[in-house]
Write a structure and sequence with these properties.
single chain, 606 residues, mainly beta, four-stranded antiparallel β-sheet, 1 helix
Length: 606
């Protein structure tokens, strides 16, 4: 019995505590910024109408209104509900259980007469509405006209210019202008899944919907409609999305696919087993029924023009189209001109890797198929900024340029190219070395490991200790740290005895000693988060601790040198000196424009 009473008291206390949560507006200096005669809100919901106009729905004593970005009351708190804020600055509001519409001045523009609303995602000037009989129609909120009278059991959200409706337990399609494009003839499945899938393509201004038949094994039937509700294509099983901003796609029927345009015209009829989308075109593939691995392909450009036909497997790479056959790889321009006929892979500056079967060696050819670099290498890598890694002489590696001049001699175990800084990392035995793009030595044979960075310097390791050298090979940070990581061009995190600190690599001055558990440098906020003995603090980029490590989570940086920190479950606001502006008695602090929204149990007084 006592246990039951305790549980009841706990539930009652929980409900009481939850009921005491209120919402407040503060400025960034910690001053209460509530509207006149409103001590607190029961709820604040921030919205954005995608045009950069921010606002807030607010509720006090079950009455809703709207605040502007300055926290001023724009729509008085006198409505049961406020549903949407449309691009025409029109709000759907409820009074006495019925919905109407008001403008940005709070003036009633559409009377209170609807029992339900459903907003359109794409046609934001349309709104589905329900009358007193429980039937749905479509309202033009700019004029107040019912484009569709309330006679439907349901109308779904519009996708482009169309929506799915339900009437007499069947589905149909309506056009936004008021026309039933397809009457309610499609049955609703027992598990309430819609039998119509509606898709819209904003670039081609066309819509596709698929209907599922009543067979045991579902079969779809697809229709393509234009923006005036004309049927462009029907009697197909499948229509794919259009190619980005291009007006070309494929349709399917009886297990085959065709190429079509946005007007529903057939460019190539149902002959393809598959259609693949390339960067600027479609590749229709026909598989050889006798040989699973063999195929031929047709390549269409962005407007559906046939460029290549009856070829092998096709792929687009850069400005060249490649046809892969069993014995060779052919290259073509986008106009269909043949550029080469070799076993090759596309390379920079018109060079291709070419393999000679007789000698089992590699060389390079140009786009016309002429041998530019003789077949003399056991293995090759693609050219990158005029340099390529090649192998010869008993598997020793070197580097050549596009004229086949040896940049790095063939005596190294491996190499890594970094064209951004024009440096080459070489490995010989257990040592590492750096040379420049012309093969000149940048560093001596003294490093055990090397790592590149985003900046013009490299991490180097000697005797299990790490340091930094610049692109000229000068050691700007000695190899004395357990580990090192470059966070900014002039700042590095350093590790000693599993603790991390911060180093200025231009002066070798330690900005933060190696005593922290974690350091995270934020380039955007220009502050450094650090974790010390389980607590978070902040320093500036010069290593000055501006907020002491007292807080249970990473500190959020706001504008005007304001910071949101957390202790336990509560958040507070700090200034640049670490002074508490808003106490840690609030469960949440969110920024809204130049204001803060405080969710709190505490009662603030203006």
């Amino acid at each position: 019995m006592k246990t039951g009473i305790l549980v009841f008291i706990f539930i009652l206390l929980t409900i009481t505590i939850q009921a005491q949560i209120n919402y407040y507006l503060f400025d960034l200096d910690g001053n209460l910024a509530m509207p006149d005669d409103i001590p607190y809100f029961n709820k604040i919901e921030i919205e954005n109408d995608n045009s950069g106009f921010y606002y807030a729905y607010v509720c006090k004593d079950k009455k809703w209104g709207i605040l502007d970005i300055l926290g001023q009351v724009q729509i008085p708190l006198e409505y049961q509900k406020i549903a949407f804020w449309y691009p025409y600055r029109t709000s759907a509001v409820m009074k006495e259980g019925k919905w109407g519409f008001i403008n940005s001045k709070g003036e009633l523009v559409i009377p209170y007469k609807y029992l339900g609303l459903a907003r359109s995602r794409m046609n934001r000037d349309r709104c589905s509405v329900k009358n007193e009989l429980g039937l749905w129609g479509v309202l033009d909120i700019t004029t107040g006209e019912e484009v569709f009278p309330c006679k439907y059991e349901k109308i779904n959200n519009f996708e482009g210019d169309y929506a799915i409706f339900t009437k007499n337990e069947k589905l149909g399609i309506v056009y936004k202008g008021g026309k039933e494009v397809f009457p309610a003839t499609y049955k609703i499945l027992p598990d309430y899944r819609s039998k119509i899938e509606l898709k819209y393509h904003p670039y081609t201004k066309t819509s596709i919907f698929l209907t599922e038949n009543q067979n045991e094994y579902p079969q779809y039937r697809a229709f393509l409609l234009d923006s005036l509700s004309n049927i462009l294509l029907s009697d197909v099983d499948y229509i794919d999305d259009f190619l980005g901003k291009r007006d070309i796609t494929c349709a399917g029927k009886y297990g085959k696919k065709a190429i079509i345009n946005a007007q529903g015209e057939y460019i190539r009829s149902f002959i393809y087993d598959d259609v693949v989308k390339g960067g600027d075109g479609l590749i229709g593939i026909i598989y050889d029924a006798k040989h699973d691995r063999e195929e031929r392909s047709d390549w269409f450009d962005e407007v559906g023009k046939l460029i290549l036909t009856n070829n092998g497997s096709i792929a687009e790479m850069g400005d060249t189209v490649f046809v892969f056959r069993e014995e060779q790889i052919d290259s073509y321009s986008y106009t269909g001109k043949k550029l080469g006929e070799r076993k090759c892979q596309v390379q920079e500056k018109g060079l291709y890797i070419d393999y000679d079967e007789k000698s089992s060696l590699y060389g390079f050819i140009d786009q016309e198929g002429r041998l530019v670099i003789p077949h003399q290498y056991l293995d090759v890598e693609p050219f990158n900024n005029g340099r390529a890694q090649v192998t010869k002489n008993g598997r020793k590696g070197g580097v050549i340029d596009t004229l086949n001049r040896v940049i790095v001699p063939f005596k190294y175990n491996g190499s890594e190219l970094y064209p951004e800084t024009k440096r080459i990392f070489l490995r010989k035995g257990n040592k590492r070395i750096i040379v420049d793009w012309d093969g000149n030595f940048v560093s001596p044979y003294t490093y055990d490991d090397m790592k590149s960075t985003w900046y013009e310097s490299y991490l180097v390791c000697r005797n299990s200790k790490w340091g930094i050298i610049n692109t000229e090979g000068k050691e700007i940070v000695p190899c004395i740290y357990d580990d090192i990581s470059l966070e900014l061009p002039d700042k590095a995190t350093i590790w000693e005895d599993n603790k991390v600190g911060l180093l200025d690599i231009t002066t070798n001055k330690i900005l933060l000693p190696c005593k922290y558990d974690k350091i995270e440098v934020s380039v955007k906020s220009k502050y450094i988060d650090f974790l010390y003995k389980g607590k978070w603090g902040i320093s500036d980029l010069d290593g000055n601790e501006i907020i002491q490590p007292l807080y249970d989570d990473k500190i959020r940086v706001l504008q005007n040198n304001r910071f949101v920190a957390r202790i336990g479950e509560n958040e507070g606001l700090l200034n640049l000196n670490g002074d508490v502006i808003i106490p840690f008695e609030n469960i949440d602090i969110k920024k809204w424009g130049d204001l803060l929204i405080i969710t709190s149990y505490q009662q603030f007084v203006k």
